[in-house]
From TrEMBL:
GO terms for biological process: DNA recombination; transposition. GO terms for molecular function: DNA binding; metal ion binding. The keyword Glycosyltransferase does not apply. Residues 182-288 form the Probable transposase IS891/IS1136/IS1341 domain. Residues 1-45 form the Transposase putative helix-turn-helix domain. This is Transposase. InterPro entries: Cas12f1-like_TNB, RNA-guided_DNA_endo/Transpos, Transposase, Transposase_put_HTH. It holds the Pfam family Cas12f1-like_TNB. Keywords: DNA recombination, DNA-binding, Metal-binding, Transposition, Zinc. In the N-terminal section; belongs to the transposase 2 family. Residues 315-381 form the Cas12f1-like TNB domain.
């Protein structure tokens, strides 16, 4: 079985290459915004819908009239930027059709456009462009051969090459097709996991994996950096450096959270053949409780603190990493409805709000069964997942 995977490497451009990469991002951002304005104006003034095909056909003339600007970069990368806009409009119309909050595509500010993508078909980019040198390099048209810190082998066929800016760092992202799966030997074990704040997750076997709370650990340093930022004059060089310090701290927390998710997910796929988790709607769970002026919310500060703790735990990151690791390892991942899993007794099935005495203590009002609340919930999650699995096999 072959799967599609992405690998991410740190790249080390020279100062000249870093300046060229920054200019490449800026030109692609301007192209994206110009294409968006083109679509808006055509529909508003003439009722005409402009698509990717028409805008891609105009690239040749744009590059010809601006040889020192847009003409410097690969046409393939510019087509990918136009496809990115086309996907944003497709998602917009899909949300309208489904009756959800639409969210019209926005113009990208300087801090909102950080990735440029090239097709890996000799169209302005080439992976491993100088294989006989000790250091691996990637070739990007208009930028040159950029050194790559390759820490792992690249498997499969490289389909697209992307460069992403994250604060002061630059990363290379390779999207690869036909990556061979690496199935792990069967263990015969199954587990349900209950995601939490005090513990990152608890298994139905009773194991608790602590959540590192990376944002909380960095909170004091981050608060100092943000206070320093508030004192700087807008547009000044000192403010730019202060913004970079805040961004660097957030980036470090993000990397730590991702590292924790990788290690936790690897432990799960190595230990269990079937893993069941709650199908959580994290965006709904972390909505603000502030309300409106007419109807202000209650317990806003407490809800804000809970939202911060949920996001700091990184449930979404863990589930995303777990999904692709399970696929590659040949494990089965099942998502179940989370409703009442923490209120239901895993022994007799009695469901009541008062069954859960505290955050950690569970005592059934029906049969008197006492257990750790998270372990009880994980057992219920596992039972629900196995029932879904059995029903799917019988169908």
């Amino acid at each position: 079985m072959a799967v599609r995977r992405s690998v991410k490497f740190l790249i080390r451009p020279t100062s000249k290459q870093a300046a060229a990469l920054a200019q490449c991002l800026e030109d692609h951002r301007q192209l994206y915004n110009a294409a968006l304005e083109h679509r808006r104006t055509a529909y508003r003034k003439a009722g005409v819908t402009i698509g990717y095909g028409e805008q891609s056909a105009e690239l040749k003339e744009i590059r010809k009239t601006d040889p020192d600007g847009q003409g410097r970069w690969s046409a393939g990368s510019q087509q990918q930027t136009l496809r990115r806009l086309d996907k944003a409009f497709a998602a917009f119309f899909r949300r309208i059709k489904a009756g959800h909050k639409a969210g019209y595509p926005r113009f990208k500010g300087r801090g909102r456009f950080d990735t440029v993508e090239w097709p890996a078909t000799k169209n302005g980019a080439s992976w491993d462009s100088q294989p006989h040198e000790p250091a691996t390099r990637v070739y990007l048209l208009g930028i040159g051969h950029v050194r790559v810190h390759q820490h792992r082998a690249v498997k499969g066929r490289v389909k697209t090459i992307s460069v992403k800016r994250d604060g002061a760092r630059w990363y290379l992202v390779l999207s690869c097709d036909d990556v061979p799966a690496e199935p792990l030997p069967a263990t015969g074990a199954v587990a349900g996991i209950d995601l939490g704040v005090a513990s990152l997750f608890t298994t139905s076997d009773g194991e608790h994996v602590a959540g590192p709370r990376h944002l909380l650990t960095t909170a004091d340093r981050l608060a100092d950096a943000q206070r320093d930022l508030c004192r700087k004059e807008r547009g000044s060089e000192r403010r730019r450096k202060a913004v970079a310090r805040v961004a660097a701290l957030h980036a470090k927390v993000r990397r730590q959270r991702l590292d924790t998710a990788h290690k936790a997910a690897l432990t799960l796929v190595r230990g269990y053949d079937v893993i069941v988790h709650e199908d959580l709607r994290i965006a709904n769970m972390t909505r603000s409780a502030s309300g409106t002026i007419e109807q202000p919310g209650r317990n806003v500060a407490q809800k804000a603190g809970l939202n911060r703790s949920i996001l700091d735990a990184g449930w979404g990151v863990l589930l995303r990493v777990l999904a692709y690791k399970a696929e590659s390892a040949g494990r089965e991942l099942i998502a179940v409805e989370p409703r009442n899993t923490s209120r239901t007794c895993s022994r007799c099935g009695h469901c009541a709000r008062d069954n859960r005495l505290t955050q950690a203590a569970f005592r059934c009002l029906g049969c008197g069964h006492a257990a750790h609340a998270d372990v009880n919930a994980a057992i219920n999650i596992l039972r629900a997942g196995l029932a879904l699995r059995q029903a799917a096999e019988a169908a």
